[in-house]
Specification:
Number of strands: 22
Bound molecules: methylmalonyl-coenzyme A, adenosine monophosphate
Structural class: alpha/beta
Distance between the termini: 43 Å
Largest sheet: 6 strands, mixed
């Protein structure tokens, strides 16, 4: 395994492609990762090298493994087996530190070929995205997808609606973005209607990583004169469902299962539900060449989500229409938060807060947010004689984990509401917020 300091730069793409061709496994590192999370990833993945565009700038952050620069080198390439690992991508769970999902060459190749077919994605496309290169959306779909299909790619190092619109004025044809980005694009187009010229002629605008609310769909359709298509995926499974370029663009749905992906709804005992009535709710289970090879060093966690027949249990709750269109209605774990398209476990933020000397107890919950989908809130019982400032606690989490995991607000409380078993009542906290 070789880690790559995943700055949005050409050198990062070179390093990851080079690793893949050489049969090495890339562990992308979010350059904004806090010290605690970075230490966890380095200890868990134990990379032999860290490749960085500017190694001198990160050497102090990676004790134990010296970062080295990225450069060209010749040499014969080995034959890489399809089931060889390609990536280890860290993803949050409800409790504990993030787990490394192992994705293989076959996972990526099969999924990208199915997506290219569904979206009529070809070498004449110019894809634009401003997504980070350390998660599936920006890395596998955006970067590897463009390279596999042969389309051009414009990576915007920092998202802004202006930069996205400018890319379309200059000939981009496709956009991959999270709902927060679409929300900000809509705000921008309402303020500056003339900016819609290029983007309204886009061939395909794709949203994913979190639900795009129906009202946002309609608002975008009115502003752009075309509908955004949604697709649904997960780090462990890549993309499971997608609305096709030539399919019906039904707001609030993520389309049918992608070619090659078997999908079913199951009940609480994981028994298949036959219903395809757009009403019966079950957990989504998937099977196919898209399903990952397991979590690194975590056979227990792998066994909890992947059964012996190869079915992966997503934790997402959905209905299915007679024509196979899937509508996601919620998720099983209330302690998983999706904010700006990033998955954050409430438990990891609580653990980080508890490391602050002024924190006696902490509870974290996600509440609905127009821009981020969900906003992270923290409820803290301070230690006696202390009155920690919200900003200090927020910065503490940003420094230990990553800025996107920081609470957006902290409420100091005298006690946390608990049930008879002593479990914190997150619903009561949300209501209080
Ligand atoms: C603010 N900042 C701070 C602090 N407060 N930094 C340190 N400490 C603090 N206390 C900084 C942030 O680092 C950032 O800096 C800036 O202030 C703005 O912060 P924020 O508001 O958090 O960011 P944003 O600009 O609002 O980001 C919105 C975003 C982002 C661009 C939509 O959330 C994003 O890129 N989301 C994509 C997530 C994604 O790719 N998910 C895919 C997962 P600076 O601006 O300098 O950085 S894969 C997946 O889910 C599956 C497979 C799927 O289906 O796709
Ligand atoms: P991650 O662990 O970051 O890979 O996030 C995967 C999760 O994001 C899924 O399990 C879903 O809960 C959510 N997700 C991804 N795409 C969509 C979508 N189009 N609609 C609703 N939820 C989505």
């Amino acid at each position: 395994r070789v880690a790559v300091w995943a700055l949005p730069e050409l050198a990062t793409a070179m390093a990851m492609v080079g690793n893949a061709r050489a049969g090495l496994v890339t562990v992308p590192l979010n350059p904004a990762l806090g010290e605690k999370e970075l230490a966890h990833v380095l200890a868990d993945a134990a990379p032999r090298r860290i490749l960085a565009a500017r190694p001198a700038a990160v050497v102090e952050r990676t004790p134990g493994v010296e970062p080295i620069g990225i450069g060209g080198a010749g040499g014969a390439l080995p034959v890489v087996e399809p089931d060889a690992p390609l990536l280890v991508l860290y993803t949050s769970g409800t409790t504990g530190a993030p787990k490394g999902a192992i994705l293989t060459h076959r996972n990526a190749a099969s999924n990208l070929d199915a997506l290219a077919e569904a979206w009529a994605w070809t070498g004449s496309d110019v894809l634009v995205h401003a997504l980070p290169l350390f998660h599936v959306h920006g890395l596998v779909l955006g970067l590897f997808g463009s390279l596999r299909v042969g389309s051009s790619l414009r990576i915007l190092p920092k998202f802004s609606p202006e930069a996205v619109c400018a890319a379309f004025d200059e000939g981009a044809t496709m956009l991959f973005a999270v709902p927060t980005m679409y929300h900000r694009i809509a705000e921008h187009l309402e303020a500056v209607p003339a900016a819609a010229g290029g983007i309204s002629r886009a061939r395909l605008l794709v949203s994913g990583s979190a639900a795009l609310p129906v009202r946002e769909h309609e608002r975008l359709a009115a502003l752009l004169g075309q509908r955004v298509v949604e697709r649904y995926g997960m780090t462990e499974t890549l993309i499971n469902c997608a609305i096709r370029a030539d399919g019906e663009r039904r707001a609030g749905t993520v389309g049918p299962a992608l070619a090659g992906v078997e999908l079913r709804l199951v009940d609480d005992e994981r028994r298949p539900l036959d219903a395809a009535d757009d009403a019966t709710i079950g957990e989504i289970a998937v099977r196919g060449p898209n399903v990952f090879a397991g979590y690194l060093n975590r056979p227990d966690a792998t066994a909890a989500v992947l059964d012996e027949e190869g079915w992966f249990y997503t934790g997402d709750l959905a209905t299915r229409a007679p024509d196979g269109y899937v509508r996601i209605v919620g998720r099983r774990a209330t302690d998983l938060i999706k904010t700006g398209g990033y998955k954050v476990g409430a438990g990891e933020v609580e653990a980080a807060l508890l490391e602050h000397p002024a924190v006696r107890e902490a509870a974290v919950a996600g509440v609905e947010d127009e821009d981020l989908g969900e906003r992270i809130l923290a409820f803290v019982v301070p230690r006696e004689g202390t009155a920690p400032e919200a900003k200090a606690l927020i910065d503490h989490v940003a420094a230990l984990l990553a800025p996107h995991k920081r609470p957006r607000a902290v409420h100091l409380v005298e006690a946390l509401p608990r049930n008879a078993m002593g479990k914190v009542l997150k619903k009561a906290l949300r209501a209080q917020a």
